[in-house]
Amino acid sequence: QVQLQESGPGLVRPSETLALTCNVSGGSISNYYWNWIRQPAGKGLEWIGHIYPSGSTNYNPSLKSRVTMSVDTSKNQFSLKLSSVTAADTAVYYCARGRDSYSRFVYWGQGTLVTVSS
Amino acid sequence: EIVLTQSPGTLSLSPGERATLSCRASQSVSSDYFAWYQQKPGQAPRLVMYGASIRATGIPDRFSGSGSGTDFTLTISGLEPEDFAVYYCQQYGSSPRTFGQGTKVEV
């Protein structure tokens, strides 16, 4: 059974860079699209973007200037960096797997809360 | 960007009743790329329906989906206690992928 697990600092200072990793177990990271989605407390879901193991990416235009995603196939994990964070970036961040570029999300991580505060 | 608007915001029903959730898109969405998710407090979303009308693995047949173009519906016939949750619609046929703001189904 595929499992995804997010990890990273739970507190980030304003203007700094948020960095999260999603570890994939129970299956290879190859041949799938790996997504990041976030959810502020009490609010809806926002797709941040996805990455394919080749390095091809697709970012949400609303965040594109601040987002960088990467994949480490040797560790079966992928990562998110979001720069110049503000309080508006405080959210639960989820990673999720897509079978292809235009795919529903069957497998999700449990989510990790990132708070932006000084 | 395709904006998805869900209605109502909150649906107050009792177990055994029928729930009808709506999602309207700001422009036409291929039904092949339309999904519904269920989310309970403290949990990740769970895929309920994809392709607008195909139940995801493990989803009971009291859940059904329909719609095309700009109007989609998720119906839960005979609510069970475990169905009370927030439901989100999603389109994944164009970029950026977008979600509706959610409909809370409460007792």
Structure, described:
The complex is a heterodimer of chains A (118) and B (107). Chain A has strands spanning 3-7, 11-12, 18-25, 33-39, 46-51, 57-59, 67-72, 77-82, 91-98, 105-108, 112-116. With 118 residues, chain A is mostly beta strands. Chain A is globular, with a radius of gyration of 13 Å. Chain B has 107 residues and is mostly beta strands. In chain B, strands 2, 4, 5, 6, 8, 9 and 10 form a 7-stranded mixed β-sheet that branches. The mean pLDDT of chain B is 97. Classes of the chains: A mainly beta (118), B mainly beta (107). At the A-B interface, strand 5 and strand 10 of A face strand 5 and strand 9 of B.
| Backbone shape of chain B | globular
Number of strands of chain A: 11
Largest interface: A-B, 21 and 24 residues
The secondary-structure element order of chain B is: EEEEEEEEEE
> So what's the overall shape of chain A?
globular
Q: Supply Rg of chain A.
A: 13 Å
The largest β sheet of chain B comes out as: 7 strands, mixed
Q: Which bin fits the share of residues in helices of chain A?
A: under 10%
The total count of helices of chain B amounts to 0
Question: How are helices and strands ordered from N to C of chain A?
Answer: EEEEEEEEEEE
Structural class of chain A: mainly beta
Give a topology summary.
The complex is a heterodimer of chains A (118) and B (107).
Chain A: E1 3-7, E2 11-12, E3 18-25, E4 33-39, E5 46-51, E6 57-59, E7 67-72, E8 77-82, E9 91-98, E10 105-108, E11 112-116
Parallel strand pairs in A: 2-11
Antiparallel strand pairs in A: 1-3, 3-8, 4-5, 4-9, 5-6, 7-8, 9-10, 9-11
Chain B: E1 4-7, E2 10-12, E3 19-29, E4 34-39, E5 46-50, E6 54-55, E7 63-76, E8 86-91, E9 98-99, E10 103-106
Parallel strand pairs in B: 2-10
Antiparallel strand pairs in B: 1-3, 3-7, 4-5, 4-8, 5-6, 8-9, 8-10
